[in-house]
Amino acid sequence: MSKVVIFGASGQLGSCIKSITGDESESFYFPQTSEANILDVEGLEKLFAAHKPAYAINCAAYTAVDKAEEDSDLAEKVNVTGVKNLADQCTKHGTVLIHVSTDFVFKGAVARPLTEVDATEPISVYGQTKLDGEKAAVQTSKHFIIRTGWLYSEHGNNFVKTMLKLGAERDKLTIIADQVGTPTYAIDLAGFILTIIKQQSNAYGIYHYSNEGVTSWFDFARAVFDLSGTQVKVIPIRTDQYPTRATRPGYSVMDKSKAKETFSIEIPYWRDSLIKCIQQLG
Ligand SMILES: NC(=O)C1=CN([C@@H]2O[C@H](COP(=O)(O)OP(=O)(O)OC[C@H]3O[C@@H](n4cnc5c(N)ncnc54)[C@H](OP(=O)(O)O)[C@@H]3O)[C@@H](O)[C@H]2O)C=CC1
Ligand SMILES: Cc1cn([C@H]2C[C@H](O)[C@@H](COP(=O)(O)OP(=O)(O)O[C@H]3O[C@@H](C)C(=O)[C@@H](O)[C@H]3O)O2)c(=O)[nH]c1=O
Q1: Distance between CA 221 and CA 177 in Å, rounded?
Q2: Residue pLDDT, tens place only, 83-109
Q3: Of 194, 225, 252, 277, whose CA is between 20 and 30 Å from 47?
Q4: What is the fold, at CATH topology level, of the domain defined by 4-158+183-212+252-268?
């Protein structure tokens, strides 16, 4: 397999990619953030010159959605300038950039699955910086941008692990029921990224990828508790009953037809993947 360098290797998705590389692990390089800081242009030049990667997978990002509202400078640096720096290196070395973006580039006011050509309209600093990051990624011609949403796994910080922690500490939880989307098991997304590489595809562009199905944060939390056998009362609430610094889309289900048709993949239903994750966390 071609040489692949992963940026943001210590994060949730980076860890999932590492965990599934198996026999091909020698083709993958998972540098620490200090060696692969996407804001350090000189460091990136050295890394690209040393490894001459055929693929750069960008899992590096500023992902603290609420904190980004007050920390917009850093969010913009990492999510926009960092991506531009990577895209420049990819252009220089003929590297294919696989960049990860988010459903939060959408406003979420239209209740039908969103396609890659639907209008974007971020409603948070995080969402805006991720959209601007997509614009930086397309500056290198060989790019795949994968928009995903509601990522969770046994690695890193995520909603499932937060629910298991809170569920063990409290008798009852109030969870927003009017934000609708689809969870994505980061192991499934990691598999999709490796499929793109294995197929040596040159169908560059934007793709939507989440698990199949539709749910709300409330129903997602209920499923986590049902599957893990956690006894906790879960109360559905409206968004305005759970004030947060950042505004989140009301509806961000993505249409994945393009990814399924282009790469001939089947995508697991969200609850089936959640079962696997809960077993792993067991
Ligand atoms: N989490 C989610 O629910 C969703 C995530 N996404 C997108 O998926 C991608 C992966 O997310 P996820 O794995 O959950 O994110 P994490 O927050 O778990 O990981 C982010 C990674 O980025 C690294 N990083 C931060 N700043 C820099 C920098 N300047 N240079 C290099 N690396 C840096 C972090 O390293 P360190 O810890 O050392 O700082 C960490 O390894 C991101 O693009 C995110 O926007 C999309 C939809 C949903
Ligand atoms: C902890 C908690 C959260 N919530 C709500 C708040 C929010 O609307 C929703 C999810 O909260 P979180 O803060 O865990 O997730 P959040 O950071 O908003 O998740 C987002 O992360 C970024 C990186 C993305 O790109 C998105 O796709 C999405 O996954 O659940 C409750 O209603 N009750 C609770 O007790």
Answers
A1: 10
A2: 999 999 999 999 999 999 999 999 999
A3: 194
A4: Rossmann fold (3.40.50)
